[in-house]
Amino acid sequence: MPRPSRTAERRRELLPVLAEAFVELGFRRATTAALARRSGVQETILYRLWPDKKAMFLAAIGHVFERSKAIWTERLASTDGGSAAERLLEYESRHLGEFGLYRILFAGLGESDDPEIRARMRETYRRFEQFIRRQIEEHRGERGRTSLPAAELSAWALVGLGTIASLTRELDLLPAGKRARLLTEVGRALLGKRA
After folding, report:
1. Could you give all domains of the chain from N- to C-terminal order, each with its CATH number?
2. For an engineered disulfide with 85, which of 31, 35, 131, 135 has Cβ 3.0 to 4.6 Å away?
3. pTM of the prediction?
4. Residue 146 has pLDDT above 70, yes or no
5. What residues have CB less than 8 Å from 38, skipping those under 6 apart?
C-alpha cells in the first residue's frame, strides 16, 4: 500500500515560515532561494509543494486570515469582558500588527494587477469582513441596537480602521497608545457603544 501524501501537512508546517519571509521581504524581493533557506529546505521541496513563488505568496495571503481567525476564535472562547465583538476589539487594540502579517496584504495590494493575486486579496478581505460582520450582528442583537449603520458597512469600516492602524504602525505615525485609542474609540462607535 502506498504511503499517504504528506503534502498538506508539509504545507501547513512551512507556510508560517514563508509568511514571515514575505513579511520581511515582500513579494518581489523574496526569491525562492531565500524562501527555501529560511524554511530549512531545498528549493525543490518548495516546488513539490507549490508550483511557483506566486502560489507560495497566494498561500501566505490566505494565511493572514487563517492566523487571525485562529487567534480570534481562541479569544472568543473566553467569556471575560463584554460581547465577542468587544473582546475582539479590545484584543486588537493591544495586539494589532504584532506579527507584521499586514505587510503581506500591503504587498498584495501592490500586486493587485495580477488577476490571481487580486482574486485572493478580494477573497481574504471579504473573509475578514464576514467574520467581523457576524460579531457586530451578534453584539447589536444582544443589545437591541438597530438604528446604526448596517453591520456590513460597519464591518468594512472596521477592516479599514485596522488597515489605517497598521499603516500608522508601519510608518511610525502614531505611538502604540494612540493606535490603541484609535481602534477602541472609533471601533466602539462602529459597534454601537459609546467610547
Report:
1. 7-191 (1.10.357.10)
2. 135
3. 0.90
4. no
5. 17, 18, 20, 21
